[in-house]
Amino acid sequence: AQSVTQLDSHVSVSEGTPVLLRCNYSSSYSPSLFWYVQHPNKGLQLLLKYTSAATLVKGINGFEAEFKKSETSFHLTKPSAHMSDAAEYFCVVSSTGTASKLTFGTGTRLQVTL
Amino acid sequence: EAGVAQSPRYKIIEKRQSVAFWCNPISGHATLYWYQQILGQGPKLLIQFQNNGVVDDSQLPKDRFSAERLKGVDSTLKIQPAKLEDSAVYLCASSLWLPGEETQYFGPGTRLLVL
Q1: Is the pLDDT of residue A98 over 50?
Q2: CA angle, corner B107, sides to B51 and A23, nearest 5?
Q3: Which of A44, B61, B81, B105 could bridge B16 with an S-S bond, Cβ 3.0-4.6 Å?
Q4: A107 interfacial to chain B (CB closer than 8 Å)
Q5: Cis omega (within 30 of 0) for bond into B61
Q6: pLDDT 10s digits, B16-38
Q7: Which domains, ranges and CATH numbers included, belong to chain B?
């Protein structure tokens, strides 16, 4: 069984300040972990993914996430928020293998203010 | 490289009517997925195809939902008859069928409103 818990349903930051979106996972197998972003009325876009290589993963638009097995966490960070970062972010876990199944968290809405 | 295409983008129907959604995956992607995303929630897998065969349809309400992927490329998802609770965004995604290549690429979705 696998599951994801996004610890904050809503995060608000000022433009230029750091972003931290928290995610904890549970998986019976070595997981693959993803962060997807969804802008209003748009499809889901892959930000970054972890697949058992380097524990610090860099993604698009300056985002990165660190896989911490001891804490079962995969938090998403960005040093400096931009207005265009305002969106819904989903943490996702997948079982390894060819018949992988994605399990999504409930999402964190990021608000960026001036 | 073209992404996953879906149509229509929006659909409004009355309850008990039928509706169909279409998806064209990324070229070469053998695996295709349909998700349902209810407002305020994360997407939930409805059905997964490997080429034209069904891998997982355990979450598909089979009394009213059906899906097919003839010829292993395009896919259609149908709801008949629709209920109010079917109002959601229906997302299609595709991926390669390779170990370690689980990344799924999503289309823009079809937003369905059932009145």
Answers
A1: no
A2: 100
A3: B81
A4: yes
A5: no
A6: 999 999 999 999 899 999 999 99
A7: 5-98+105-110 (2.60.40.10)
* Separation between Cα atoms, residue B57 and residue B47, nearest integer Å: 4
Assign 3-class secondary structure to chain B: CCCCEEECCEEEECCCCCEEEEEECCCCCCEEEEEEECCCCCCEEEEEEECCEEEECCCCCCCCEEEECHHHCCEEEEECCCCHHHCEEEEEEEECCCCCCCCCEECCCEEEEEC
Amino acid of residue A36: Y
Torsion of CA B21, B24, B25, B27, to 10 degrees: 170
Q: What is the mean pLDDT of residues A35-43?
A: 88
d(CA A59, CA A68): 17
Confidence of residue B112 (pLDDT cuts 50, 70, 90): very high
The answer to whether the CB atoms of B100 and A51 lie below 8 A apart is yes
The more confident residue out of A30 and A4 is: A4
CB contact under 8 A, A106 and B42: yes
Tell me how far CA of residue A14 lies from CA of A42, A74, A81, B64, in angstroms. Answer: 24, 23, 7, 46
Which of B40, B42, B103 lies nearest to residue A90, judging by beta carbons?
A: B42
Query: What are chain A's domains?
Result: 2-113 (2.60.40.10)
Can you read off the two tokens belonging to residue A25? 């996972």
For A39-78, the DSSP string reads -TTS-EEEEEEE-SS-SEEE-GGG-EEEEETTTTEEEEEE
